[in-house]
Write the C-alpha cells for this entry.
Amino acid sequence: MLKGFKDFLLRGNVLDLAVAVVVGAAFTAIVTAFTNNVINPLIAVAGGANDLGWGYQILADNPATFINIGAVITAVINFVIIAAVVYFILIVPANAAKKRFITEPADKKASEADLLIQIRDILESSLETNGATASPDGAHAMTADKAANLEQTRE
C-alpha cells in the first residue's frame, strides 16, 4: 500500500502540480501586493471622499453594512492577472513543447472497413505485379502459371 502511494507521489503529474501550487501561491502574493498598493488607490479615487473606498453603506451608523465594490473589483483584477500570467507563461509554452517533442502514436486503431480496404489494395497490387487483371465484375483473374499449378494439383 505504501509503495503504491510512493509511486503516486513520484509521478510527474503530482510533482508538477506541487510546483504549480507553490509558484501560484508566490505569484498570488505579488499580484495581491500590486492590486492593494496600485489598483486599490485608483479604485478609491473613483469612490469619492468615502473613507471605506468605493461602495455603499446600507445603514449609516453601522460600518459592518458597507458593501465594498472596490474589493470585488480588486479580486476580479487579481484573478485576471493571475490567469493571464499562468496561461501565457506556463500553458502556452507547455503546449508548444508538447507539440514539438511528443509525437502521437502513428498507428491508430483502424476500423473494420479501413482494414478491408487495405487488404483489397494489397491484393490488387500483388495481382498487378503478377500480371493478372481483375474482371469488370470485381472478381480477380488467375495468372496462367497459377491456373496450370492448380490443374496439376487437382490431377
About this structure: The first strand starts at residue 55 and ends at 57. The domain at 8-123 is CATH 1.10.1200.120 (Non-ribosomal Peptide Synthetase Peptidyl Carrier Protein; Chain A). The radius of gyration is 36 Å. DSSP finds five helices and two strands in the chain.
